[in-house]
Amino acid sequence: MRVYYNGSCTVCNTEINHYKKISSGINYLDVSCTLDEHISHLSKKELYRRMHVYFNGTLYKGSESFLVLWSKLPNWIWLSRLLGMPVLKQLWFIGYECLAFILFVKNFYMKKIK
After folding, report:
1. H or E stretch including 53?
2. b/e sequence 5-17, b meaning 16+ C-beta within 10 Å
3. CA 39/CA 49 separation, integer angstroms
4. Is residue 49 packed enough to be buried (19+ CB in 10 Å), middle (13-18) or exposed (0-12)?
5. Which helix (H) or strand (E) holds 87?
6. Distance between CA 1 and CA 54 in Å, rounded?
7. Beta strand pairing status for 52-55 and 2-5?
8. In sequence order, which residues have a C-beta less than 8 Å from that of residue 5 and are 6 or more positions away?
9. Which segments in the chain show pLDDT lower than 50?
10. Residues 1, 27 contacting (CB under 8 angstroms)
11. How far apart are CA 27 and CA 33, in angstroms?
12. What residue ranges do the domains of the chain occupy?
């Protein structure tokens, strides 16, 4: 499994650092300084906007990528199962998209202004 995250985002980086401490066998790649064949077709904005996970030949993005990652982390499997339920999955998607947009604007566009 490969997790692609925006390491220039302090919130994203903090969360991923926590996952790194509790996981093994997962490669975490900061898209602000690393690209590979699984994500080379995506734009910088797409990569910075949402987390991506490459697992078993499939590239997951956004809220779905978290469900895949959490399903492999000790003590997080329950959250993956809970938020994977039909109605909750839609609410999780909406919540994630709202937060991801706010973080994207904060981290990407605010840095351009400075």
Report:
1. strand 52-55
2. bbbebeebeeebe
3. 13
4. buried
5. helix 86-104
6. 6
7. antiparallel
8. 12, 13, 16, 28, 29, 30, 31, 51, 52
9. 113-114
10. yes
11. 14
12. 2-113
